[in-house]
Write a structure and sequence with these properties.
This protein is an alpha+beta fold and 356 residues long. 44% of the residues lie in helices and 14% in strands.
Length: 356
């Protein structure tokens, strides 16, 4: 808050994070904040008396949970100088972690309920950038106008959205796969002994990734901080195994269920491609239920007997998905080629491979 300082406000965009009181309308707002953050502030301010509001704006701690930074200079230019460095990652701070949960929930709602349009998600991305810049300015980590700091804020947001997008797309894919799992004997609450892949979720996640890239570019242009290269945040630098839909899926199938492997994550599937595979114990045999196809057309439907412990020669523990394709099957959908990208095996085999 700038109480007691003699300031020529001029361009308000130069004062990111400061509190602005409109003497005509009586409304208070935070310069540079999203509508969501300002609505929260106004809602809070309506419950206060004039004296309480004045004190609230002076301290300005309740809305953003930020500790008050004492004013050490009567010169506003000095007062605006950062007193601490930017965090290594904006979403690693206490405020950032709360924002991360909000992002994850919003993307989860999108995939499971389609409760937001893609344009609304783009605005949501920009709002997260705006509010993070406000918080960084109020914590005196940045002036709010430093190009390098603003690029970090945008790229940290992109990385967080990209990661949540990959995870929540996989969550929705699994949710859809539960129907096939139940049809093949799995009961809700049991350990997940199946995998389900649907290319529709891959393409949906890639479309959202492009929307977040566009949003990052647009807000960088708005903030005049130069171009942002989102590709540098598409790698899995934090070892979260979530740089893409395929990476999350591969990690879950190989290290979670441990019964299926995707060979090349970079290969794009034919539209409509799907795969379901479950292993289950039936008396003395280890039986796998396999179904794969494109759209409504089922290309593979097999019951597979495995040698679960590798002690019988007649039943292997490992198959290529393409082993179950018929040579006479004419295919112009790309299914045959993409089927070569998957291997299926027993959980015992997968566990041994994981521990190597």
């Amino acid at each position: 808050m700038s109480a007691g300082l003699n300031i020529d406000w001029g361009d308000l965009d130069s004062y990111i994070g400061e509190y602005h009181f409109n003497c005509i309308t009586g409304e208070v707002s935070i310069i540079g904040a999203s509508d969501e953050m300002n609505e929260g502030l106004r809602s809070r301010s309506k419950t206060l008396s004039e004296e309480e509001l004045r004190e609230y704006l002076k301290d300005a701690v309740e809305f953003t949970n930020i500790k008050k930074t004492p004013v050490t200079s009567e010169n506003y230019a000095d007062y605006r100088k950062p007193t601490q460095p930017m965090p290594k990652h904006c979403y690693g701070t206490a405020y950032g972690q709360r924002e991360q949960k909000k992002i994850e929930q919003r993307l989860k709602d999108y995939y499971l309920d389609h409760s937001m349009t893609k344009e609304e998600l783009k605005k949501f991305f920009k709002d997260r950038c705006k509010d993070m810049r406000v918080v960084m300015a109020q914590e005196r980590r940045t002036t709010g106008t430093d190009p390098e700091h603003n690029r970090q804020i945008i790229l940290d947001a992109y990385e967080t959205f990209r990661r949540a997008n990959s995870v929540m797309a996989n969550l929705a894919c699994d949710k859809e796969g539960e129907k096939l799992a139940r049809e093949n004997g799995w009961k809700e609450g049991e350990n997940k002994d199946w995998v389900y892949y649907n290319a529709d979720f891959y393409y949906e996640s890639e479309e959202l990734r492009k929307i977040f890239q566009e949003a990052a570019g647009e807000i960088a242009e708005e903030w005049k901080c130069g171009e942002v290269d989102t590709s540098e945040r598409d790698t899995d630098s934090l070892l979260s195994y979530s740089s893409s839909f395929h990476q999350v899926w591969k990690n879950g199938s190989e290290n979670g269920a441990r019964i299926c492997s995707m060979i090349d994550m970079s290969e794009e599937p034919p539209e409509g491609f799907y795969l379901f595979f479950r292993t289950s114990m039936e008396k003395d045999a280890h039986v796998g239920s396999l179904q794969a196809g494109v759209g409504e057309k089922i290309k593979i439907r097999e019951k597979i007997t495995f040698d679960v412990f590798g002690i019988f020669d007649q039943h292997p523990q490992f198959y290529h998905l393409s082993d179950f394709l018929k040579n006479s099957d004419n295919d112009d959908s790309g299914f045959r080629k993409y089927a070569e990208n998957f291997d299926i095996f027993t959980r015992y085999y997968g566990t041994v491979q994981m521990r190597k």
